Amino acid sequence: MKNIRKSIVVCGMAALMFAGQGCKDVLDEKIISGVGNDYMNTAKGFEDGVKAAYSSLRFYYGTQQGLTMSEYGTDIYATGADGGYKGFHFYDGQLNPTVDYLATTWDELYKGINTCNAVIERAPNVPGVADNVKKLRIAEAKFLRGHYYYLLHQQYGGVDLYFNETVEPTKETKRATDAEMYAAIIKDLSDAVTDLEAKAQSSDYGRATKPHAQALLAKVYLAKGYSSEKAADDFTKAADLLKEVSTKYGYKLLDDFSAVFDENNQNHSEVVFAVQYTTDALTNGTGNSLHLYFGMQYDVQPGMKRDVYWGRPFKRLRPTEYLLNTVFADRVNDSRYKKTFRDTWLSNNPGTYNAASFDDSKTKVTFAAGDTAIFIPGYEMTKEVRATKKYQVLVPSKYSEALFPTLQKFFDSKRPDMTYEPGSRDYYVVRLADVYLMLAEALLQTGDKAGAAEAINMVRYRAGWPGKKDKMLIDAKDLTMETIIEERARELAGEQTRWVDLKRWGLLVERVKKYNPQASAIQAYHVLRPIPQTQIDRSAKTSDGKSVFPQNTGY
Q1: Measured CA angle at 539 (ends 533, 545), to 5 deg
Q2: pLDDT in tens, 519-532
Q3: What is the spatial distance between Cα 541 and Cα 555, in angstroms, rounded to a whole number?
Q4: Cα angle at 549 between 160 and 7, to 5 degrees?
Q5: CB of 547 within 8 A of CB of 555?
Q6: d(CA 275, CA 147)
Q7: What is the DSSP letter of 541?
Q8: pTM to 2 decimal places
Q9: Is the pLDDT confidence value at 164 over 60?
Q10: Which residues of the chain does CATH 1.25.40.390 include?
């Protein structure tokens, strides 16, 4: 479904404002659309409306906005040298209700919700669309609406639940309780599970199918199982759903961990649900930009200059010592350190240079094109050994906010030039390894340690070096929640899961304080983001002048 356009406007929905959605003064806003309101009441318009409902996924997944709200300020990632929005790393006064990412994320997710509402409400009266197709499209819309409300709930807590198409601005808003949020999300996703196609991928790749909804519903049950709204069977329900996803649809782990992120083979057997991007600038929107944010400052070092292959290093996120030295401590049996981080740069700017300041073992270096220019061994190689190398060696004691092991999962060599930012790689929202790890977590919480070990060992066995795979297996008696916490960091580093994982487990504050000294200001209330000030200002006022939409505690 590569023809989804982020800019698509249907029935005025993309310009539509809830209280606080996207305009400076909602009462003065004129709702203008390039597409007539009746267009969606046609067969073609209805199908385009469903496609438009997917487009808000592109705002959160594979973007700086989504990355900022899902990986910044965790136990595994700290701030790099450049960039803004560092309040999300530091949990200081920079994280406040006026930050634009909070408002734009809120607005875009509600835009997607309203598009879904329009699809669901209008479907019965659209001519020329078979009833079975309408049923399927409504199921897709419910999957997406549940998805958007899940993202809003995890970030902001209770929000305003809308289930009808909004066609004009309103100041009448209210915050749902956690119980109401979970009930609404679970109902939407359960309906989607019932009515979506029971196959791994749609013939129109990118559309939601039953296992996609099952995986997301399982993630919701996991979150609920740790929350104040927990029920005794939440983890059992999650486990049952995840067992189906992992066994009934033909998904298969790739043999090599690094192959998961091969940009030339993106639609493979491990992908459960992906958000699609493309090389077509007309339909790609802002693209998948994750290739920008994890890179170190290689491009000013001797022997190197910036190019498309080595990437454009924005230096937004730097791995914590905990990620490098504890999570990835085993590099003898486990291949994932080597395959997760780029550790070698080959010269693309040959010549003779003064050696880089980070390597004091030599004064001059000379490189031919293709020679190793920089190597990161991952351990403290002695000065004497470094002196024997013709290349520059960056050791851990010289890591900085500009120089560090570089996550290589998202590099994009298909960009037309070295300054081009929109990437074309699909973003994997759920892949099979994540399903196995969630299954291990759910089973552990039900007391089934043997089943949990079997699930986690599927991921660990794949990750082992040839000849070392059996050494990766964990005995059930040794499996703890800490095992799963670290395994998710190893397998999913950088994949927009960590902040929500820590929040789900109730460990965000504890682990950030323990493993990320930069973020020592974090407080208990930071498990929720600030409600955007625009939402509060544009909501109705009580008799004493206060907004009917209250701010989260602490902000």
Answers
A1: 90
A2: 999 999 999 999 99
A3: 19
A4: 50
A5: no
A6: 13
A7: B
A8: 0.93
A9: yes
A10: 39-196+512-554
